[in-house]
Amino acid sequence: MHDKTLIELSRALNAGEFSSRELIEAFLARIDRLDGRLNSFITVTAEQALAAAEVADAKRDGNEHPLLAGIPIALKDIICTQGVKTSCGSKMLDNFVSPYDATIVEKLAGSGTISLGKTNMDEFAMGSSNETSFYGPTHNPWDLTAVPGGSSGGSAAAVAAGLVPAAIGTDTGGSIRQPAAFCGITGLKPTYGRVSRYGIIAYASSLDQAGPMARTAEDCALLLETIAGHDLRDSTSVARSVPDYRAELGQSLSGLKIGLPREYFGEGLDPAVDAAVRDAVKTYESLGATVREISLPHTHLAIPAYYVIAPAEASSNLSRYDGVRFGHRCDNPSNLIDLYKRSRAEGFGEEVKRRILIGTHTLSEGFFDAYYKKAQQVRRLIRQDFVDAFEEVDVLMGPTTPTPAFDLNAKKDPVSMYLQDIYTIAINLAGIPGITVPAGFAEGTEGERPIGLQILGPHFAESQLLNVAHQFQQNTDWHLRRPAIAEETA
Amino acid sequence: MQWETVIGLEVHVQLATRSKIFSGASTAFGAEPNSQACAVDLGLPGVLPVLNEAAVAMAVKFGLAINAEIPEISVFDRKNYFYPDLPKGYQTSQMYSPIVGPGEVEITLDDGATKQIGVHHAHLEEDAGKSLHEDFHGMTGIDLNRAGTPLMEIVSQPDMRSAKEAAAYLKAIHAIVTYLGISDGNMAEGSMRCDVNVSVRPEGQERFGTRAEIKNVNSFRFVERAINFEKERQIELLEDGGVVEQETRLFDPELDETRSMRTKEEANDYRYFPCPDLLPVVLDQAYIDHQRRSLPELPAEKRARFQDELGLSAYDAGILSSSRAMADYFEVVKDVCGDAKQAANWVQGELSGALNRENLSIEQSPVAARQLGGLVSRVVDDTINGKAAKEVFQALWNGEGDSADDIIDAKGLEQVTDTGAIEAMIDQVIADNPAQVTQYQEADDAKRGKMIGYFVGQVMKASRGTANPQQVNALLKEKLDQA
Fold first, then answer.
1. How many CB pairs below 8 A link A and B?
2. Rounded mean pLDDT of A164-186?
């Protein structure tokens, strides 16, 4: 069962090949047996999942057949789930049990999906390797000596290893696409405002967006349709109807205009990644697409701008973790200042502290104009680059990451870690959607390491992106490859 | 040296929305601690603010009432600081693009003169919770019911030159917001609070002196007292060769003095930046026009109408339009009795006197406007005389009857104007007081004028106050002079 896509599972359940309870039990058994090696889950909610499966089975017996009913998924531990620990990968929230559900949790439950638990992540989504998690790093299922990417590394690893058929991640600067690429799965970062942020713990509010991580573009389409839509509780969600994404998947690519951003194929790009991406582009040409080079002239400013804006917002967003109402509180505070200082010093890890410091500094009197305001100006330029590019072409293609998954503990210097997101970060600054699909492999230490192709489109062009990704998957089999651990039985 | 005091006010007005500015929780005052704080007010991880449109409408109405510019776009910013009753670690406010631009408020001084006070801007923000330091034995209790309550902060220009002007400005703001119905203006419950900026400079000097900010002054009287103390403190300091430090001070009404809270060096860097969770507020002309059409008659307009159409004096018109409650009360009395001057006299005289004695506001008056109107009607149509009217008022105040007419009937206070009946009483009084009558008749005109009061009193007493005093006077004179 564990090698099936969501669509296949849905058909099998409705055909009576197995019950939802059997399906949930099978995945729980896999988590139980295999996740010790991966560390992809922080919390497994087995009891709740089994109870929900009973309900789903009863409904199916009553002749109700919603597409996703009784199908397991997993949620990144940044998504608030009522009655379940929601840690955000941090000691600060190790004791936080959310009293409410995020909007997307309500929507997923409404469609009948069953959460198996909460997946591991970089602390407060700050990281590109899952190594900043308070709960220890997640391992890449393809090569356990490699990182799974981050910050949605737990979600990516769990899906790749067949511990769950699909998961929800969040992406602030590449946190869905980079781990999806590293783990050889499909991941979509929707347009900013497409999916409600209500109940998703904020890292950088103007950049955060949740999205699906699954085996195929088709599964991503199904999940996006479930979680997308306007939410009155999120002022930044957009009042725009949600298309039937799966209905758009059959479109021909003949005449599709693909742009290759010159700046995405420069220095620092691993030759294996470069070759895989160029091969993928050739596949598209064979499907009738035309290809031309294009320029995104402000690409080099994306990382500097991001590392001003995101930490600035984070420094403010994370102020609520003060030891007063919830989360970690230090023992025996001697006074208020001591309570603040020690609770925060003990509760936050290194990278989170670093970004709070950066953000506090860039917002300070005397620096605000030089950093924050300037970064916002740069952000507008970067957005304009994309708007201009999409006047010329339908989609942009390039590598999702400069290299395949790197080794655990390999990147000690924060800046070299930040450079991981060089091809993904600008997309968040511009607010446009991006999808990554598996497009090849490179040599690793204990196994091959996947390579991702990133496809970018204009604002709200998710339908097109999903179709372009789907057509690639109809003509290639990279997305069907499984790591050895996924072949193991529970 | 002659010193000039320069004053600017920051007035915080709690807006009378039913729910909070960024959440659906109730804003009602006095509930059990933390019973009106939802996930958003608590600042739980993952929650997001949604702007309450009612707060926007109220701010726009205020802006229109002070002839302010209403910018097309305004933006919410975060003001970052740590405090236990500030759940998110920042206050959502407006720093760079406030909802109301520059405007003007007219104040009326004691001598009836008016002066325009500039408003720099007004912005929307959320209130914090309350820290309760009593009853928790070495700990602090946090009540977040107030967290997220909508506030409008009105920042004046430094245009005031005396404590009296500042108090008049505050009263004018109070009148405008209560007229608009956008705040209950209740200073005791904290619905209106103000920070006062005070500096002094030698008369004629253009440059402002260094100012001190006095925080959280919460009554008209305290504003005057705080300014007067602070002005004296600064002048004394300067005359002794010292310098005024830029600092935040606290007014202590018990000791009638201001004390230093923190100096400029200790001031926070609030790291303001646009709140990424809220979209800019965009107001088109149609929306602004719609709000303009819904504006009620404002204090200045009402004052002018009271003078021009009702013929009241500037003084009466000013007092009767000073608050919407007062104006509404007066207008009901006037409509019922049909005599604006009598209505004005009764509202400002008998009623205000009684309210002041009992320390009640006009909203708390035991005599309803309709009841007082009924009473004044009977004065206007001569059913009762002035003395009886006071008795009826007292009876209404004590709740002895539902209407003036009931009380007049029950107490038999209807004025006696029947000449025959009055003459009969006069004849009786003359018959009963032969010695006084002789005395009167032997006196000259000047003395007689004084002595007649005795007889009037006797006749009024005999009528239990119901006789028409003018008639009594005239008839008595006639009879005594004849006899």
1. 98
2. 98
Residue of B nearest to A359 (CA): B271
* DSSP, residue by residue, B47-72: ------HHHHHHHHHHHHHTT----S
The verdict on a CB contact (< 8 Å) between B49 and A235 is yes
Portion of chain B with pLDDT greater than 70, in percent: 99
Of A355, A337, A405, A325, which Cα lies nearest the Cα of A150?
A405
Instruction: Inspect the interface and report whether the beta carbons of B278 and A235 lie closer than 8 Å.
Output: yes
Which residues of chain A does B133 touch, with a Cβ-Cβ cutoff of 8 Å? Answer: none
Domain ranges of chain B: 13-184+259-289, 297-411, 419-482
Q: Catalytic residue numbers of A? A: 76, 151, 175
Look at B84 and A336 and tell me if their CB atoms are within 8 Å. Answer: yes
Best interface-test mutation with B: which of A319, A352, A369, A372 has the largest number of B CBs within 10 A?
A319
Q: Is A43 part of a structural domain of the chain?
A: yes
Q: What is the spatial distance between Cα B79 and Cα B269, in angstroms, rounded to a whole number?
A: 9
Domain count, chain A: 1
User: B166-181: per-residue pLDDT in tens?
Assistant: 999 999 999 999 999 9
- Å between A210 CA and nearest CA of chain B: 13
Distance of CA A105 to the CA centre of its chain: 16
Instruction: List residues in chain A touching B: CB distance below 8 A.
Output: 79-80, 86, 88, 93, 96, 98-100, 102, 197-202, 204-206, 232-236, 312-313, 315-316, 318-320, 322, 324-326, 336, 340, 360, 363-365, 368, 372
Whole-complex ipTM: 0.96
Domain B419-482 CATH (choose: 1.25.40.10, 3.90.660.20, 1.20.1420.30, 1.10.10.410): 1.10.10.410
> CB A320 to CB B87 under 8 A?
yes
Residue B75 has pLDDT above 80, yes or no: yes
Question: What is the signed CA dihedral for B356, B359, B360, B366, rounded to 10 degrees?
Answer: -80
Residue A295 placed within a domain: no
pLDDT digits (tens, 9 = 90+) for A3-29: 999 999 999 999 999 999 999 999 999
Q: Whole-angstrom distance between the N-terminal and C-terminal Cα of chain A?
A: 11
Q: Is A259 helix (H, G, I), strand (E, B) or coil?
A: strand
- How many Cα atoms occupy the beta-carbon half-sphere of A414 within 13 Å? 12
Asked if the structure places residue A234 within a domain, the reply is yes
User: Domain holding A18: CATH number?
Assistant: 3.90.1300.10
**Is residue A417 a part of any domain in this protein?**
no
C-alpha–C-alpha distance, residues B431 and B436, integer Å = 10
Tell me how far apart the terminal alpha carbons of chain B are, to the nearest angstrom.
74
Q: Retrieve residue B29's tokens.
A: 């005052």
Query: Starting from the edge strand earliest in sequence, which strands make up the sheet with A434-442, in order?
Result: A41-44, A114-119, A72-76, A166-171, A209-214, A186-189, A434-442, A449-456, A395-399, A257-261, A290-294
Q: Nearest CA to CA, how far is B133 from chain A (Å)?
A: 13
Q: Which residue of A has its CA nearest to B81?
A: A319
